[in-house]
Amino acid sequence: MTKTTTAIGLMSGTSMDGIDAALIETDGENHVIPRGFLTISYEPDFVARLRDAAAHALECHRPGPDALIDAVAAELTGLHAIAVHRLLAATGTDRADVAIIGFHGHTVAHRPDRGWTWQIGDGALMQTATRIPVAFDFRSADVAAGGQGAPLAPGYHRARSAGVGRPLGVLNLGGVGNLTWFSGDDWGSFDTGPANALIDDWVARHGTARYDKDGAIAAGGTVQESVLTAMLDLPWFDLAPPKSLDRADFTTQAARGLGLADGAATLTAFTAETIRLALGHVPPIGRLLVTGGGRHNPTLMAMIADRTGVPTEAVEAVGWNGDALEAEAFAWLAVRTAAGKPISWPETTGVPAAMTGGRLA
Ligand SMILES: Nc1ncnc2c1ncn2[C@@H]1O[C@H](COP(=O)(O)OP(=O)(O)OP(=O)(O)O)[C@@H](O)[C@H]1O
Ligand SMILES: CC(=O)N[C@H]1[C@@H]2OC[C@@H](O2)[C@@H](O)[C@@H]1O[C@H](C)C(=O)O
């Protein structure tokens, strides 16, 4: 039997809202016991610096030393180290009992088509700050090998869903959306399009809110079908998986001129339509289990169920925590990295063969 270890996962997602930190016990295979989770919101001024770093990173030709980005990376690492200490305290865990931290860092730019992806976060500094071994830089090796470098959570979705009936889809509605599908013994994954990113951008631009809480704004608007049709008229949606996205690949441009509520309704319907189109690339799925912040938006959830015709429910229906799942995934991936096991597969990122990834500090 493989040894069970305790691991911490740290995720900073494309919504740029903060840090998700999870503690799990796992053998790096199908045995997983979640032990604790917390989230720390970023201060607005740090979010502004992170946005600047992401905008700047897209102008760079590839990852490398950069004064602005390195400063944000160091600050981000410090904040994530604080999250580790808080999680240890909250769960009553001794630092020495944690075998590894999976430190995803924050994606400032993702350009697999150009052969690079860039996650900021200093693994060595994290190791020094916590005195716990750290796995980081999970995506670069995959991209260097010709893969998409994303999504990486699908292996964890497969491990957790071993006892859940097939066919099945696990849909993550973060800033960007991604789908992992299972049909018989077949499986695969890819990014579906923007999930909350455009809705967040639209609402933030029009007022003081950071997102459309409970989908209330969209619920009061009317979907503008002509705008929706124009937004969906992109070759990207016809591309066969695997495929992945940078948060900046889509904008709210097509909705300009609409009122706040109609724009929110239209962008929410756009996300739902991207899921419908994604399902067109995979075998029939009997059930969609939804993780990520978007599952808290009932307007979006209803539109997805309505436009796809697939029963759609939050992952809590099978006992998972949809706020913690991605952070848990990076704890699980770190255990696999330390053990020299694959973290991506031809089915999930398009790499030529199952491969290891991540660096150790
Ligand atoms: N009550 C709610 N009502 C509507 N939307 C919500 C609610 N709670 C969270 N969200 C949405 O979920 C988003 C955060 O989702 P999540 O934390 O899964 O994103 P992330 O982890 O940053 O993204 P990614 O998976 O792309 O890395 C928020 O920005 C918001 O749009
Ligand atoms: C490049 C990058 O950071 N991609 C993220 C992003 O956020 C959601 C989607 O796009 C997914 O592909 C990925 O994150 C999840 C955690 C993943 O790798 O599974």
TrEMBL record:
Its EC number is 2.7.1.170. It is an enzyme of class 2 (transferase). It comes from the Bacteria. One of its GO terms (biological process) is 1,6-anhydro-N-acetyl-beta-muramic acid catabolic process. It catalyses: 1,6-anhydro-N-acetyl-beta-muramate + ATP + H2O = N-acetyl-D-muramate 6-phosphate + ADP + H(+). InterPro entries: Anhydro_N_Ac-Mur_kinase, ATPase_NBD. One of its GO terms (molecular function) is kinase activity. Belongs to the anhydro-N-acetylmuramic acid kinase family. This is Anhydro-N-acetylmuramic acid kinase. The gene is anmK.
